[in-house]
Amino acid sequence: RMTRSIAAPVTAGLQLEYFYASPLHAAMLDIRAELEILGAIPGLGRVSLRTATAESLAEVWGAAAGRAASGADSRVLCLSAHSASDPGGSAPRTLLLEDALGRGHPIDERDLGELLGSRCQASDCLAFDAVVLNVCHSESMGNRFLEAGAGCVVTCTGSVSDGAARAFLRCFLRTMAMDGLESMLAVFEAAQRAVRLSPQPGLRADADRFKLLVSQWSNPPR
Q1: pTM above 0.85?
Q2: H/E stretch holding 181
């Protein structure tokens, strides 16, 4: 599969870059369910949907990092993908992206850092205000996004169910669209609370597996 982009007209509000990787021979992600969530969130401005390849992620990140933050709109990157472990358990987990043919392309932490590059981290030129990694076992990967210029990163410690990830993302984006960047900690806690109080008991235990990493250059949590 080739990388593709579906973008709504640019309007004011939350600007979202949504990446997904569902390679051949890996468990299929329910992208349709993800899109239904995005379509029901008020306050979203421009939304781009892309297959997550090394090339597409590097291109979008580099372009975002090269633009000074306008201060008017919040910019969020969401990545839904799998992580993979070494069968022998001796190597760190990798992020499983796609190649141009839809096959799995494992990226380790060092490769991810090189892919994103070293970016300006001052408060007026953050690449994205927030990054949401809907990726199991992604806490250590989140640090690479912080180093590359993310204001904050949401990661997952251990395995998180698809239902919990969708519930968290829905509330996170809705709250951020309404409240902006006034308090990223409050946005995160609202999304975490939505999972903890879910009407589906099976999702509640996953609430504490979401973690927030914050850059020194982002708006301080309050």
Answers
A1: yes
A2: none
